[in-house]
Amino acid sequence: MDPQSYTPVDVPITPRNRKHDVAESLAQDWYDNHAFKTAWYNSMSITFPLGEKFFIESVRAFANQVTDPKLQEEVRRFCAQEGFHRREHDHYNHTLCDVRGYDLDYLEGRLQKNITLCKKLYSPLQQLAITASLEHITAILAESALDPASPESPHMDPAMRELWDWHAAEEMEHKAVAFDVYRAVGGNDRMRRRAMRSATFFLLIDFTVGAAHMLRRDKKLWSPRLWVEGFRFLFGRNGIYRRVWPAYRQWYKDGFHPWQRDTRQLLRQWQEAQPSVT
Fold first, then answer.
1. CB of 29 within 8 A of CB of 189?
2. Given this model, what pLDDT does residue 153 score?
3. What angle do CA 38, 163, 133 make, to 5 degrees?
4. pLDDT by residue (tens digit) across 158-215?
5. pLDDT tens track for 29-65
6. What number of H helices and E strands is found in the chain?
7. With contact defined as beta carbons under 8 Å apart, do 143 and 261 qualify?
8. Each residue of 76-115: pLDDT tens digit?
């Protein structure tokens, strides 16, 4: 039987049932004491509970077509990891909105409408392609965040860094699971490229709308200086999206696979930094 999983055998996908006390951190601008940077990360968190539920459902829809025992086990572990991420970010989001007065019903409501529309317009295979695309985006953002040369982590509140690094490490561990399921059930390069274009467009809108809502509630929305600094944070010379652009572009190459970006060393470094935690 031909293998369907191409995750390296020395990369265990390990669900870690961790809980994070971030209430005190979320009450302040926890990223570099900067309103925009904090709002951008908080806006990313808002998308995770509903997004990860969508990811789990789209992968499970094809689980009975997976014949490789290794990939079958990876699907189970992927779902477990995403379930813990969903729980922790749901707690994060409720705490954030409670302490800072953001409207979670509004923020999640528009996301849920978009997901509902996606399920009406796209086939299950197309939804899986969207999941694989978004998993690539989260994986390359995670890779950037865990890179020792990254400027991100030193500017984070320690409790928030612990949460985001935990999430980042597990995203890298399971970065190929949805992709391998998609390929195993007949997904092609053309569909996944189209899915990535759509996923990127709507994800950027979701992040921007969420951050704008938070800045408006904080009475900082109309600060030109803040938006200029935010643009540099994202797209400047050492901005987040500029750093991940080469990795993002790899998705569009023929024959691409997520583990062509070998991030095992970053995972080992993260794990070695916390030897008492499995």
1. no
2. 60
3. 80
4. 999 999 999 999 999 999 999 999 999 999 999 999 999 999 999 999 999 999 999 9
5. 999 999 999 999 999 999 999 999 999 999 999 999 9
6. 11, 0
7. yes
8. 999 999 999 999 999 999 999 999 999 999 999 999 999 9
Gap between the Cα atoms of 207 and 42, Å rounded: 9
Strand partners for 218: none
Q: DSSP per residue over 73-133, as a string? A: HHHHHHHHHHHHHHHHHHHHHHHHHHHH---HHHHHHHHHHHHHHHHHHS-HHHHHHHHHH
State the number of CA atoms in the 13 A half-sphere of 56 facing the CB: 17
* Interval 224-247 mean pLDDT: 95
Q: How many residues does the chain have?
A: 278
CA neighbor of 8 nearest in space, from 250, 178, 169, 176: 176
229/75 Cα distance (integer angstroms): 40
User: How far apart are the C-alpha atoms of 45 and 26, rounded to whole Å?
Assistant: 12
Q: If 0-12 CB within 10 Å is exposed, 13-18 middle and 19+ buried, where does residue 278 land?
A: exposed
Is residue 233 within 8 A of residue 122, CB to CB? The reply is no
Beta bridge partners of 203: none
Q: What is the pLDDT of residue 82?
A: 98
Predicted local distance difference test score (pLDDT) of residue 151: 72
Q: Can you read off the two tokens belonging to residue 258?
A: 């997520």
pLDDT of residue 12: 95
Single-letter amino acid, residue 159 = A
* Calpha distance 128→201 (Å, rounded): 17
Residue 136: Cβ within 10 Å count: 26
Closest CA to 179 of 236, 139, 234: 139
**Cβ count within 10 A of residue 187:** 21
